[in-house]
Automatic annotation (TrEMBL):
One Pfam family named in its UniProt record: Methyltransf_25
Residues making up the signal peptide according to the UniProt record: none
Statement: the UniProt record of this protein carries the keyword S-adenosyl-L-methionine: yes
Positions of the Methyltransferase domain: 46-138
Protein name, as recorded: Class I SAM-dependent DNA methyltransferase
Superkingdom: Bacteria
GO biological-process terms attached to the record: methylation
GO terms for MF: methyltransferase activity
CDD domains documented for this protein: AdoMet_MTases
Keywords annotated in UniProt: Methyltransferase, S-adenosyl-L-methionine, Transferase
InterPro entries, sorted: Methyltransf_25 (IPR041698), SAM-dependent_MTases_sf (IPR029063)
Length: 246
């Protein structure tokens, strides 16, 4: 870990919105906000890994009280600088363990953020933390990719996802430990710079078991926020687990 902001310090935060511009388009944001607002109803929403507010801010503009947890002060500073940035409450801390006051109708993790927890124990703790924040009948929502191990031929552990004259980007998988990393080799002034971000990939069925350990059950699973059916060919999923009503 590089500093108190983890891997999402000032250098990453400064260009995060631009580098993820496609995820800020209305067609990417609106379906997520629609689904989360429906689950929140008249209750509060808790975002784990709130970042620069891509989902939290438009959700708050729908009239949903939103609170976020994030380790990165640099990312949260970007949220605060945006219009209505003070409408989202934020607690700085590890979202797998940090508690905030009150209960919530929905807690959620988007854009593969569950993979930022690099051990199974931390991911299990995250589910337990989410469940502890939910009111009876509340829901925990995760958006995450399906591990792309089918793209790994025998003897290969790397999957490229961007090749250009100025950047090579690839994921490296360890199928024994489920550790993975995203690697970026960027050419700057004729020199190569390497950035490395560790993750832990996780299967849908494994997430279901984590939910059961936290006292929740699977309610819905779709391919994306539009509620398209989840199939064996789906490359990601949006899953909803529910805390028993009583």
């Amino acid at each position: 870990m590089r500093d108190e902001d983890g891997y999402f310090g000032e250098k990453v935060a400064a260009g995060y919105d631009e580098s993820s511009a496609d995820m800020f388009r209305p067609e990417a944001v609106d379906p997520a906000v629609d689904l989360l607002a429906g689950l929140a109803g008249d209750g509060r929403a808790l975002e784990l890994g709130v970042g620069t507010g891509r989902i939290a801010l438009p959700l708050a503009r729908r009239g949903i009280p939103v609170h976020g947890i994030d380790m990165s002060r640099a990312m949260v500073d970007r949220l605060r600088a945006k219009p209505d940035g003070d409408s989202v409450g934020v607690t700085i801390g590890d979202f797998a363990a940090t508690r905030v006051e009150g209960t919530f109708a929905v807690a959620y993790l988007v854009f593969n953020t569950i993979n930022n927890l690099t051990t199974q124990d931390a991911q299990v703790a995250c589910f337990q933390n989410a469940a502890a924040h939910l009111r009876p009948g509340g829901c925990f929502v995760i958006e995450v990719g399906v591990p792309e191990l089918r793209r790994l031929p025998p003897g290969q552990n790397a999957v490229p996802f961007n090749i250009s004259p100025t950047q090579w980007a690839f994921d490296i998988y360890d199928v024994a430990t489920q550790a993975m990393s995203s690697n970026y080799v960027t050419i700057v002034d004729g020199r190569a710079e390497h950035e490395y971000y560790p993750f832990r990939y996780v299967w849908p069925s494994e997430l279901d078991l984590m939910a059961r350990l936290a006292g929740m059950r699977l309610r819905d699973r779709w391919e994306d926020w539009t509620r398209a059916p989840f199939t064996s060919e789906s490359r990601r999923h949006v899953s909803v687990w529910e805390k028993p009503a009583g």
